[in-house]
């Protein structure tokens, strides 16, 4: 159930089975990110893979002394490129791996192109997803919804991605989906279809409790991606943007050249792995410790190396020191930038209010606070819009809902038109009409008492009170109390036992906050392994893009928001 | 408990289990001292009778010992793991009181016991099975990979007894050894024939191997497969349903307890996703077979086409045109046109009015041209020409293969069948001319040209191995070597750094150098790869450059990671220090053992005078101390040069020593140090045994010591001295590195020992020696004088007694004869001790801290001689020392050529230092390179500063050396 490991094993298997010698990895756009998420360059270099080539690149040279390992998605384009390649092979041997199911006819076409017998292997290795963390995968697809329905191309891509996860983990699951979401049902059905079609692929050893695939829709919980985050990974993504484990720091004032773009990979960076889910305060302390450690190890420039022993000690410690200095400078820069942004945008206040909006139900104080904070000149457009969005979502149906006034406030503050339009769009995307379960107002007695107790206990950390809806859902699922009416099974049979292996897929993108709660669920629940996936991993910005894409039928069409929503919600 | 009455065992067990004393974990041993009679010991007796069995039962890991009647008052004693002891007086106490008391002070409290009990029963313990409410699993069968309980999923037929019995009846024994067999219900019950081997379960076809069977199954039965699978699925489904029914109640049960459970789960702890167990490779599917099938068809076609062309080309080119003269040209032209036409039938001119490629009409000006290879027609523009050289090249590969089929034949239709890869089986060498205008070329169409071109390219590439490949292969080889050697080296270095003597320092140094050489090689090779073709004018393709850069980068990474992981070796000095320390530790242990042994021996030799014993005891303690510190080689060897040795009975010992020396040399050359530890152990055992034997003998002899005869004494004395001394040599060679050599004392003892030379070597100068005036020549004293010395020699204290005690004529023979058996006993084992000796010797040889001492020794020697010159005892000294010098020569030459050793050591040290320096310089250079690569200028500066420093030091070293 470790997706990172699954992809890594696939890649190492590919490289190993090609034997010794210089190798070139031929990849396409998507497999590039798939591979780069699990392997660092130096790791893959050690396996004698010296070049990375895009299959569609024209500038490749004839290098008959190289072996080519092709890891490609089985798209039409790729197959066509590969046919061209095989007609005039540039490398001595080709090991071809497709990341998903490829049709027989395409294999035949390839075979007929291979006149020089350069192909030594044709296999399907189901690494068709981007493994972010061991329990988190993404497909890097934004804007999968057109209105309330799937974009057909993206539906098939998502289906392929999801089935490849199942194949890589060797799970043939039972499927549950969110009843209120049509998209979830469509996806569930097409996954089921693939499983039936490729039944011999899914013929794994039966476990006592079959694994479970749960498909939910982002629109059910539009609040989570709107909140500011305070755990390391989530925060980096929210404020700096984490793209395939890379962050772009070129906007940071005074950043050195080598730190323009840094890679944060838990696989190769211990500090990052240890602090992934710690909150900002704890990271501060840890980074301080790291610095102190580093200072101790740092050889002093002015210190004379008087004896051979000194020199020897210096030389012995040097590599360690160097490795450490890389880590230290990276994290210090990142955390420094984070704290700069926090103070510049007064995110502490914003976040406090966000949490209040999300977790408490005092309308008047919420409204006052929002108004007050909107006066704050430091508040960025995005944050202002975000607060109003949260307010709008939270008190959508409240009797004294005063959204127009707040919108007016936004207008006066000079927040641009596009942001103001987004407020409306978010309500449309994740408003009450869409939600199957009630996100904010608990409606059954247990939940009410729970919330009551929560209120009684007080909150430990004002910035992290919010629990994503997914956590609640999974909690119930693990306990076997998730209602069949809300999350029906696709097949007639239902699961009687408590599920053990769970794959959750969020249409419209997961968030790192959810990843964290899945992580802690994994840690706290024995015998249960949960893997979270999403069409992408959202931060607020990308989520708003997603919302805009979903609510505007036809990309770029300038229609008024009111009529922009498709009437039909099948 | 007596085994009487009903249920003796059950009753006993019950009784034992009633015991309530469970000791804390710290308690290791419990002893009970009690008396078998007496009022006061009554409670203790009862305690032993009633409670001890219970205690032992409940505390199986505590050793319980009873001592009867040793002390007047009974007591308990407990030994704890930290060395503490707890004493409990039980005199006059009731056994219940005793057990209560013991329980209170050393037993585990109720709470602790309870907690432990709970921990043992804890839910998360995966070893517990039971209702889901309490345990993780209900049954073993829920663990993945276990056979499911037959109650839930019925076993396959062949695993059930009933079915088997039934089968026995019907004599069905065909067992298809097939993967499917186990799950597929055997359908051949009626079959009489017994068949074995790799049978297909569906069609019973016998296939030779597992793989054949598998492929057969996949090919032939992939359709039917579904049915089988369907059946299987049905079976599983049914089983599932049955199971669901069974589990239904459980499920409800669980739902109720769900929340409670989950709450607990939080504390039981799940697993960090990063720690999830390793998983197998995900699903894969190979299309290779399918691919190959389709490719094969295609390739066959392609290969035949190409071969056809090549054969035709071959025919056309094999004509030798040198002998054509102008007169015949026309004639020949027609002749050859006929031949050309016979190679391939030309397309009829009338059939092709237009050029098929460009569509131009053929007329007088635009003439038709025929492709000589396929016979098709095209215009001049669309025509291609194959030059003769390339034609030869294309055909040469095939010619070689058929050179033995010489005879020319005109039949063009001779077989074209060949292997797919173009080695044509037979071909006629038909002569051919080319067009009269351009007889250097062969006309052909574009299509044929294209195919031939591909073929040519292919041929080119087949043998083409660019330079980079050669370098790269070398590079990989070096890397592999490093991968092999580096772990060895690291192991060695670790061991050496810990001061162990398993490995030889110089050997390790050699290995280090070797590994470093490989690193240099890797560096050089990767640099070469990087620079490949960079100087040529058309720069290599950017991709090639990138490849070269990446290889270089990898090599740098490799070197950095591995080389910098190479820990440095200790310098010789340091190593010696560490070794010394370690050895001291071992010595101390050894000494303790020896002492214990000594005491035991002393007890046995109680008949000996008490004061003597006392001396032994006191000196023993001192000797133990002495041996902790180091004694130098010279100190150890000095006496050897001062003792006479030309006696016949010294031979075995002499031989032994010689042997040892030769062994040392051999072993040193072979640098075999691995067995040293084992040998040391052997040696010690040997010595111990030797000691014991000697002691026995000495005891025997001591009884006769009273009958000494004065006349022979002198001679005997010398003899014994020599004997003793030889032994001492042996020993000192062992000891000299550990016994402390106190310089000032040595001088004194030398002065004292001028007469009794042997004492010199011991290098001890305790009070006992002072007591003995060198002037007192009386035998008794002399005998005595040796005693303390011998005791000081403590590892072999007894063996020296014997010669001194046996100081009579008969005894003179006796000891020698009695010595021999020992000699015999020890000679076969000589090989064993020799190596340890060698080790010790070599250690001391290779030791640098010898130097100052040696010089001192030299001084002291001088002193001795000078003192000796002015000494009144000179007379005594001379006669001894003169013969000894001759005799001692082999020793001194062989082992203790001190001044030379010293020099060598000093030089050695310099070399080592230089090596170290060079290493460091190399390392730093690597860092600098790296730092430059990653552009950290401040580091570069710092490093180059260091580098300069190092280089300066190196220079200084070199100068010093000169």
From TrEMBL, chain B:
<dbReference type="InterPro" id="IPR013087">
    <property type="entry name" value="Znf_C2H2_type"/>
</dbReference>
<dbReference type="InterPro" id="IPR011011">
    <property type="entry name" value="Znf_FYVE_PHD"/>
</dbReference>
<keyword id="KW-0863">Zinc-finger</keyword>
<feature type="coiled-coil region">
    <location>
        <begin position="669"/>
        <end position="703"/>
    </location>
</feature>
<dbReference type="Pfam" id="PF01363">
    <property type="entry name" value="FYVE"/>
</dbReference>
<feature type="compositionally biased region" description="Basic and acidic residues">
    <location>
        <begin position="837"/>
        <end position="851"/>
    </location>
</feature>
<dbReference type="Pfam" id="PF11464">
    <property type="entry name" value="Rbsn"/>
</dbReference>
<dbReference type="InterPro" id="IPR021565">
    <property type="entry name" value="Rbsn_Rab-bd"/>
</dbReference>
<dbReference type="InterPro" id="IPR040049">
    <property type="entry name" value="Ribosomal_mS25/mL61"/>
</dbReference>
<dbReference type="InterPro" id="IPR007741">
    <property type="entry name" value="Ribosomal_mL43/mS25/NADH_DH"/>
</dbReference>
<feature type="domain" description="FYVE-type">
    <location>
        <begin position="349"/>
        <end position="453"/>
    </location>
</feature>
<keyword id="KW-0687">Ribonucleoprotein</keyword>
<feature type="compositionally biased region" description="Polar residues">
    <location>
        <begin position="881"/>
        <end position="899"/>
    </location>
</feature>
<feature type="region of interest" description="Disordered">
    <location>
        <begin position="729"/>
        <end position="774"/>
    </location>
</feature>
<dbReference type="InterPro" id="IPR000306">
    <property type="entry name" value="Znf_FYVE"/>
</dbReference>
<protein>
    <recommendedName>
        <fullName>Small ribosomal subunit protein mS25</fullName>
    </recommendedName>
</protein>
<dbReference type="InterPro" id="IPR036249">
    <property type="entry name" value="Thioredoxin-like_sf"/>
</dbReference>
<feature type="compositionally biased region" description="Polar residues">
    <location>
        <begin position="762"/>
        <end position="774"/>
    </location>
</feature>
<feature type="domain" description="C2H2-type">
    <location>
        <begin position="198"/>
        <end position="226"/>
    </location>
</feature>
<keyword id="KW-0175">Coiled coil</keyword>
<feature type="coiled-coil region">
    <location>
        <begin position="575"/>
        <end position="603"/>
    </location>
</feature>
<dbReference type="Pfam" id="PF16601">
    <property type="entry name" value="NPF"/>
</dbReference>
<dbReference type="InterPro" id="IPR017455">
    <property type="entry name" value="Znf_FYVE-rel"/>
</dbReference>
<keyword id="KW-0479">Metal-binding</keyword>
<keyword id="KW-0862">Zinc</keyword>
<dbReference type="InterPro" id="IPR013083">
    <property type="entry name" value="Znf_RING/FYVE/PHD"/>
</dbReference>
<keyword id="KW-0496">Mitochondrion</keyword>
<feature type="region of interest" description="Disordered">
    <location>
        <begin position="789"/>
        <end position="902"/>
    </location>
</feature>
<feature type="region of interest" description="Disordered">
    <location>
        <begin position="406"/>
        <end position="430"/>
    </location>
</feature>
<keyword id="KW-0689">Ribosomal protein</keyword>
<dbReference type="InterPro" id="IPR036531">
    <property type="entry name" value="Rbsn_Rab-bd_sf"/>
</dbReference>
<comment type="similarity">
    <text>Belongs to the mitochondrion-specific ribosomal protein mS25 family.</text>
</comment>
<dbReference type="Pfam" id="PF05047">
    <property type="entry name" value="L51_S25_CI-B8"/>
</dbReference>
């Amino acid at each position: 159930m470790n997706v990172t490991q699954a992809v890594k094993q696939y890649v190492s298997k590919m490289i190993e089975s090609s034997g010794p010698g210089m190798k070139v990895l031929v990849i396409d756009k998507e497999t590039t990110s798939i591979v780069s998420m699990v392997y660092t360059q130096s790791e893959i270099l050690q396996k004698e893979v010296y070049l990375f080539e895009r299959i569609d690149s024209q500038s490749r040279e004839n290098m008959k002394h190289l072996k080519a390992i092709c890891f490609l998605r089985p798209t039409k384009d790729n197959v066509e490129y590969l046919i061209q390649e095989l007609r005039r092979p540039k490398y001595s041997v080709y090991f071809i791996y497709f990341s998903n199911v490829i049709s027989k006819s395409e294999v035949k076409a390839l075979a007929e192109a291979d006149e020089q017998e350069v192909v030594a292997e044709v296999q399907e290795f189901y690494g068709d997803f981007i493994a972010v963390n061991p329990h988190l995968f993404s497909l890097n697809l934004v804007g999968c919804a057109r209105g309330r329905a799937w974009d057909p191309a993206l539906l098939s891509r998502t289906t392929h991605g999801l089935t490849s996860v199942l194949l890589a983990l060797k799970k043939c699951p039972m499927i549950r989906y969110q009843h209120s979401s049509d998209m979830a049902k469509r996806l569930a059905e097409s996954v089921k279809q693939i499983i039936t079609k490729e039944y011999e692929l899914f013929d794994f050893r039966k476990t006592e409790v079959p694994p479970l695939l749960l498909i939910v829709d982002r629109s059910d919980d539009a609040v989570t991606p709107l909140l500011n985050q305070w755990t390391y990974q989530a925060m980096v993504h929210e404020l700096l943007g984490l793209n395939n484990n890379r962050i772009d720091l070129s906007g940071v004032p005074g950043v050195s050249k080598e730190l323009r773009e840094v890679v944060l990979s838990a696989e190769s960076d211990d500090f990052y792995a240890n602090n992934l889910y710690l909150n900002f305060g704890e990271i501060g302390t840890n980074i301080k410790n790291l610095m102190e450690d580093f200072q101790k190890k740092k050889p002093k420039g002015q210190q004379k190396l008087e004896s051979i022993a000194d020199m020897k000690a210096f030389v012995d410690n040097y590599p360690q020191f160097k490795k450490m200095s890389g880590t230290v400078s990276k994290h210090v820069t990142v955390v420094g930038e984070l704290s700069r942004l926090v103070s510049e945008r007064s995110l502490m206040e914003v976040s406090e209010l966000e949490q209040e909006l999300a977790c408490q139900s005092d309308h008047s104080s919420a409204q006052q606070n929002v108004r007050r904070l909107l006066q704050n000149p430091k508040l960025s457009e995005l944050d202002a819009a975000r607060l109003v969005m949260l307010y709008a979502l939270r008190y959508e149906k409240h009797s004294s809902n005063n959204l127009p006034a707040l919108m007016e406030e936004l207008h006066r503050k000079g927040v641009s038109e596009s942001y103001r339009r987004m407020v409306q769009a978010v309500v449309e995307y994740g408003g009450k009409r869409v939600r199957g379960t009630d996100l904010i107002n608990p409606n059954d007695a247990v939940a009410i008492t729970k919330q009551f107790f929560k209120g009684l206990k007080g909150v430990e950390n004002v910035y992290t009170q919010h629990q994503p809806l997914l956590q609640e859902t999974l909690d119930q699922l693990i306990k076997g109390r998730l209602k069949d009416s809300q999350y029906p099974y696709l097949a007639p049979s239902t699961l009687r036992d408590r599920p053990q292996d769970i794959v959750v897929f969020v249409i419209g993108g997961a968030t790192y906050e959810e990843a964290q709660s899945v992580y802690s669920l994994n840690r706290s629940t024995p015998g249960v392994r949960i893997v979270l996936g999403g069409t992408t991993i959202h931060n607020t910005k990308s989520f708003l893009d997603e919302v805009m894409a979903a609510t505007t039928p036809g990309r770029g069409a300038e229609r008024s928001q009111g009529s922009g929503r498709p009437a039909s919600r099948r | 408990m007596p085994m009487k009455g009903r249920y003796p065992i059950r009753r006993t067990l019950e009784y034992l289990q009633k015991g309530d004393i469970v000791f804390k974990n710290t308690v290791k041993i419990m002893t009970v001292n009690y008396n078998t009679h007496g009022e006061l010991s009554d409670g203790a007796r009862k305690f032993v009778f009633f409670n001890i069995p219970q205690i032992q039962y409940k505390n199986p890991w505590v050793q319980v010992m009873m001592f009867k009647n040793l002390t007047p008052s009974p007591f308990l004693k407990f030994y704890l793991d930290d060395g503490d002891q707890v004493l409990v007086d039980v005199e006059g106490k009731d056994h219940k009181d005793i057990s209560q008391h013991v329980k209170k002070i050393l037993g585990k409290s109720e709470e602790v016991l309870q907690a432990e009990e709970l921990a043992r029963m804890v839910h998360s313990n995966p070893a517990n099975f039971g209702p889901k409410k309490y345990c993780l699993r209900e049954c073993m069968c829920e663990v993945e990979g276990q056979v499911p309980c037959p109650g839930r999923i019925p076993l396959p037929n062949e695993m059930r007894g009933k079915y088997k019995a039934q089968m026995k009846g019907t004599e069905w024994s065909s067992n298809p050894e097939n993967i499917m067999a186990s799950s597929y219900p055997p359908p051949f019950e009626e079959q009489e024939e017994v068949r074995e081997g790799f049978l297909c379960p569906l069609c019973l076809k016998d296939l030779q191997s597992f793989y054949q069977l598998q492929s057969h199954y996949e090919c032939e039965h992939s359709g039917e497969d579904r049915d089988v699978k369907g059946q299987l699925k049905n079976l599983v489904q049914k089983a599932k349903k049955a199971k669901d029914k069974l589990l239904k109640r459980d499920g409800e049960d669980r739902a109720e307890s769900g929340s409670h459970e989950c709450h607990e789960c939080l504390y039981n702890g799940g697993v960090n996703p990063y720690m999830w167990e390793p998983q197998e490779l995900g699903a894969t599917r190979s299309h290779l077979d399918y691919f190959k099938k389709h490719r094969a068809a295609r390739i066959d076609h392609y290969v035949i086409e190409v071969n056809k062309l090549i054969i035709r080309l071959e025919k056309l080119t094999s004509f030798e045109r040198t002998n054509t003269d102008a007169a015949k040209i026309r004639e020949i032209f027609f002749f050859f046109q006929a031949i050309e036409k016979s190679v391939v039938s030309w397309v009829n001119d009338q059939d092709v009015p237009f050029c098929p490629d460009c569509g131009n009409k053929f007329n007088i000006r635009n003439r038709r041209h025929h492709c000589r290879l396929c016979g098709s027609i095209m215009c001049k523009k669309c025509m291609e020409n194959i030059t003769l050289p390339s034609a030869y090249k294309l055909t040469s590969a095939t010619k070689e293969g058929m050179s033995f089929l010489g005879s020319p034949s005109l039949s063009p239709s001779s077989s074209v069948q060949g292997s797919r890869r173009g080695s044509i089986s037979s071909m006629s060498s038909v002569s051919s001319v080319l067009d009269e205008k351009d007889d250097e070329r062969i006309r052909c169409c574009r299509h044929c040209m294209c195919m031939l071109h591909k073929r040519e390219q292919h041929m080119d590439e087949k043998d083409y191995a660019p330079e980079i490949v050669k370098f790269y292969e070398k590079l990989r080889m070096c890397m592999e070597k490093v991968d092999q050697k580096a772990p060895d080296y690291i192991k060695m270095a670790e061991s050496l750094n810990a001061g162990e003597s398993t490995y030889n320092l110089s050997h390790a140094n050699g290995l280090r150098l070797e590994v470093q050489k490989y690193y240099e090689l890797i560096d050089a090779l990767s640099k070469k790869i990087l620079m490949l073709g960079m100087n040529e004018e058309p720069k290599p393709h950017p991709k090639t450059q990138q490849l070269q850069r990446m290889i270089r980068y990898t090599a740098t990474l490799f070197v950095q990671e591995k080389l910098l992981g190479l820990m440095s070796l200790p310098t010789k000095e340091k190593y010696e220090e560490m070794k010394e320390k370690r050895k001291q530790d071992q010595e101390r242990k050894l000494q303790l053992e020896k002492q214990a042994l000594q005491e035991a021996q002393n007890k046995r030799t109680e008949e000996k005078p008490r004061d003597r014993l006392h001396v032994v005891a006191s000196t023993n303690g001192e000797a133990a101390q002495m041996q902790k510190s180091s004694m130098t080689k010279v100190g150890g060897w000095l006496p050897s040069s001062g003792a006479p040795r030309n006696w016949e009975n010294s031979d075995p010992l002499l031989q032994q020593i010689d042997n040892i020396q030769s062994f040392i040399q051999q072993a040193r050359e072979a640098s075999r140090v691995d067995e040293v530890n084992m040998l040391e152990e052997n040696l010690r055992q040997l010595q111990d045994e030797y000691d014991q034997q000697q002691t026995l003998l000495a005891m025997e002899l001591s009884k006769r010591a009273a009958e000494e005869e004065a006349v022979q004494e002198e001679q005997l004395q010398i003899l014994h001295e020599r004997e003793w001394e030889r032994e001492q040599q042996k020993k000192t060679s062992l000891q000299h590195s550990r016994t402390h050599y106190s310089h000032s004392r040595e001088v004194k003892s030398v002065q004292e020992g001028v007469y009794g030379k042997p004492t010199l070597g011991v290098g001890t100068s305790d009070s006992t020696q002072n007591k003995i005036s060198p002037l007192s020549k009386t035998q008794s004293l002399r005998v005595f004088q040796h005693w303390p010395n011998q005791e000081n020699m403590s590892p072999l204290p007894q063996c020296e007694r014997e010669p001194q005690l046996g100081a009579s004529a008969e005894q003179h023979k006796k000891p020698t004869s009695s010595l021999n058996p020992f000699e015999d006993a020890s000679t076969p084992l000589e090989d064993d001790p020799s190596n340890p000796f060698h080790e010790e010797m070599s250690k001391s040889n290779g030791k640098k801290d010898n130097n100052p001492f040696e010089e001192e020794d030299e001084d002291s020697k001088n002193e001795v001689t000078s003192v000796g010159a002015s000494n009144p005892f000179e007379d005594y000294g001379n006669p001894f020392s003169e013969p000894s010098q001759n005799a001692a020569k082999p020793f001194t030459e062989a082992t203790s050529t001190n001044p030379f050793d010293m020099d060598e050591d000093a030089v050695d040290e310099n070399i080592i230092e230089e090596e170290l320096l060079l290493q460091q310089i190399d390392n730093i250079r690597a860092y600098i390179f790296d730092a430059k690569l990653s552009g950290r200028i401040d580091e570069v500066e710092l490093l180059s500063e260091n580098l300069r420093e190092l280089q300066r030091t190196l220079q200084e070293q070199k100068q010093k050396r000169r």
